[in-house]
Amino acid sequence: MNIKRDLYLQQLIDRRHNGMIKVVTGVRRCGKSYLVFNLFNNYLKSNGVDDKHIIKVNLENRRNRKLRNPDALLEYIDAQLIDQDMYYILLDEVQLVDEFEDVLNSYLDVPNADVYVTGSNARFLSKDVITEFRGRGDEVKIYPLSFAEDEYMTFGGLPLILSYKTQEQKSAYLKNLFEETYIKDIKERYQIRHEEEFEELLNIISSSIGSLTNPTKLSKTFQSVKHVTVNPETIKYYLEYLCDSFLVSKAMRYDVKGKKYIDTPSKYYFSDMGLRNARINFRQDEKTHIMENVIYNELLIRGFNVDVGVVPVIIRDENGKQKRSQLEIDFVCNQGSKRYYIQSAFRMNSESKEQHEQASLTKVNDSFKKIIITGEESLVHRNDQGITTMSIYDFLLNPNALEL
Prior knowledge:
Layout: H1 6-14, E1 21-25, H2 32-46, E2 54-58, H3 70-80, E3 87-92, H4 100-105, E4 113-118, E5 137-141, H5 167-190, H6 195-207, H7 215-226, H8 232-244, E6 248-255, E7 260-270, H9 273-279, H10 287-301, E8 305-316, E9 322-335, E10 338-345, H11 351-362, E11 369-374, E12 381-382, E13 387-391, H12 392-397
Parallel strand pairs: 1-4, 1-5, 2-3, 3-4, 6-8, 10-11, 11-13
Antiparallel strand pairs: 6-7, 8-9, 9-10, 12-13
Helix pairs in contact: 1-2, 5-9, 7-8
């Protein structure tokens, strides 16, 4: 089965010979190894690179267990650098090597060594790992397959899903992967003692994707619903573990008018909808929240920094008194000088619903594009207030949809 990942392959191609360590990160089983060892390796060979100048080591393979020793790995690689031509060093599951940071840093000053690595445990995938490479680590973050590559509203976009034919097979694969790979990794890495509370937190996050929350609020939920006391600080750490493993992502709130971040609460989204659905046994088919999560993931894939927008407004209550309130914009997306304000609305089947979705966008007094994405098929159109409406299908299947 040959799956093209042209977006990420191009990112590796663009980083060739940049003097940095290319660090491919992402959630387990999203295709990191396939990208480096198959797609990038084939690209190099098709562009005239000799096999002898591509040094590949799969450190997960037991045949290479001796190379998990840092000195042995250095000696093995050095022995193959026999001329001044460029060598491409491809290391898979490099976290299995003790002191792997030192091994990789040893090649920063070797002019004819171009290094590409992948890794899988929580430590390697941490947001802090790049700092270990003396500021010369270049991260390529890979996500599961997007909608344009595979239908994934229910079973997600992990590449191996494509090899299963029935829904039962796909469900069993995702459930087993979640328990035996992702959760086990996190528990072992962080030596989580209160496993039941950690698992319950995961259930809560899975059931409430796209909802504003914070550790204090979640702690109160444990107290009121489960009659269990869990310290907010513990919950904070658990959430960080989930984010560091790329299983979920955190979207912070941003005050559009005040141009500042608001620390709490935040929203959490799953990196893969199949994993989220498997966690809750495919029980909740909440298309509104699922679509919001799908849009969020697609924006990340396209390279945007994504926040939750907050627009402070003054309204009048039922007694005519003025009071402060806040309107929410689902996503504020930034990429260089570009910015888009995006609302996710599964259905806009009435004038009042349309006005509701537009309310926050009309309160933003700048010239950046404002977009509503709906779950219904419709033609792309722009109203008199300059707000563009498009369907989820136009957005997902056209990488330039936001420019329409």
